[in-house]
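Entry:
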Amino acid sequence: MIKNILFISFFGLVTFKLATAETFPVAAPVPGGIAIVDLKSDFNEQEKVFYGKKRILTRKINNTWQAVIGLPLKIKTGTHKIQIINAMGKKKYQYFSVANKNYETRHITITNKRMVSPTKKDIERHYKEKPLIVAALKTWTENIDVQTNFTLPVIGRFSSPFGLKRIYNKQKRIRRHTGLDIAAPTGTFITSPAKGNVIRTGSYFFTGNTVFIDHGQGLVTMYCHLNKTQVKAGQQLAQGQTIGTVGMTGRVSGPHLHWVVSLNNTKIDPKLFINTNASKK
């Protein structure tokens, strides 16, 4: 009985504040989700927050500082901690809990067999491109005004959800879907869901024509399979500004946008950043 009381009291030190309809992202402390931890009242903006070795986005909501933590799909359920370091190097810790979530499995047929079983040249190309993609998703820029109330980058049907376990062409290997697919006709305009800066654009083997946008403090978005790209690296974007059009370049089974949201270099469910009740599903 005493252990249970201590356990409850211990977790009482940290609260999860679900965002209101006007404030996103919403808390969903599960694999592939987001933990939002209210920081203690003595926290100040000069302090830095880390989860493991990764720097964490902080924001101030209603006079309360919060740590907004992207949780990987492979995270273990249970208790986790963040580390807060002040200017003098002094460390303190706060704790949060991660619950379980099960994702469905779906079989997908890709007619272009090279996209399922790449040739040697395809694999060599992929390994040359991968460091560029990894570097873009690791981007961190100091920004006290990170816009996290996202709009949908394209209006369409949510054809493939985040976290899906996908099996291509009946192969035994299971691949996790680390973005949200939005099906729309080729040529449909894609817009930036929030203000930011274009980090990189390029054409890659699996993701096709791709755009990366830096929104600040480790919040990076990625847009794949574009028909046309209409922005350039270094360009500043406003929320709602066109970045390209829907296509079916790279590994696809039809025209759609594959939208990735990365927080602290961790791919998480993009739906947590938008009001899905007001979106066309």
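The helical segments are 2-11, 120-137.
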